[in-house]
Design goal:
Layout (H helix, E strand, L loop, with lengths): L4 H14 L12 H8 L3 H13 L3 E4 L3 E4 L4 E2 L16 E5 L4 E3 L3 H7 L7 E9 L5 E9 L1 H6 L13 H9 L5 E10 L2 H7 L6 E10 L5 E10 L12
Antiparallel strand pairs: 1-2, 3-4, 4-6, 5-6, 6-7, 7-10, 8-9, 9-10
Helix pairs in contact: 1-3, 2-3
């Protein structure tokens, strides 16, 4: 499906940011300049910039315009339905260690269709509350075919365009369906350490899997949120 003009402009800016043309804190071309470059209306370029802002790639500064975000922002892998119980996107996060290849937990391996002993690429992050304290701990596991075709996933540097768009650009595969499975248990030792929990605490564990247009898993992310921070909201017609 062809991109709409504002989507095309947004994707072009993402690529330029990802290539380092605009670094963190640098100002993007104004809406007026973009309108002239693309021969479109100001309203179209504003819509394109709003897409980047909503995705956490840029922020709006009064009197300056749109600048590339300094702090990585956590975003969901693909679209979410209304009322989804996934860890909320839009939070600053800290990357934990470096991405590594490891054998995933059995439930993750089963979802990804991995045989025992097969390693997958793991990326770990801690999402933060406004005061900098930890909100959630998340491990994202990428199957070998995705990781090998998308080498930047194995790097610690942020991916300005977001992992979903980067993977789509590298592989042609994109999220078409997501599945969330929520369970409750006590935090394990590693999770308690990263979440700053000093005593046994119940946590909500959401196993999110994004599947591509052919039903193949793209990523499996296990998000762990302490009970005081977890809230599930369902919105439905009555």
């Amino acid at each position: 499906m062809a991109l709409l003009k504002y989507e095309e402009i947004a994707e072009s800016l993402r690529s330029r940011i990802a290539a380092g043309e605009f670094g963190p804190g640098e100002t993007l071309p104004s809406g007026r300049d973009l309108a002239e470059q693309w021969s479109v209306s100001r309203a179209t370029t504003v819509k394109a910039l709003d897409v980047l802002r909503n995705d956490g790639v840029v922020i709006a500064k009064q009197g300056t315009g749109f600048v590339v975000a300094e702090t990585p922002v956590a975003r969901p892998a693909g679209a979410r339905r209304a009322g989804s119980a996934r860890i909320a996107g839009g939070m600053p996060f800290l990357r934990v260690g470096e991405p590594d290849w490891a054998e995933p937990p059995p439930r993750v391996a089963a979802v990804l269709g991995m045989d025992p002993g097969v390693s997958t690429l793991r990326r770990i992050r801690v999402l933060q509350l406004p005061d900098g304290s930890p909100h959630s701990y998340a491990e994202a596991w990428f199957p070998p075919d995705i990781a090998e075709a998308s080498p930047r996933l194995a790097q610690t540097a942020p991916i300005p365009e977001g992992t979903t768009r980067y993977v789509r650009r590298q592989t042609g595969r994109f999220p078409a369906e997501g599945t969330d499975v929520t369970t409750v248990r006590l935090a394990n030792e590693s999770e308690a350490h990263h979440l700053g929990l000093s005593e046994p605490t119940a946590v909500a564990v959401i196993l999110h899997t994004a599947y591509d247009q052919e039903g193949r898993p793209l990523v499996c992310e296990e998000g762990v949120t302490p009970s005081p921070h977890f809230e599930q909201v369902e919105t439905y017609a009555m």
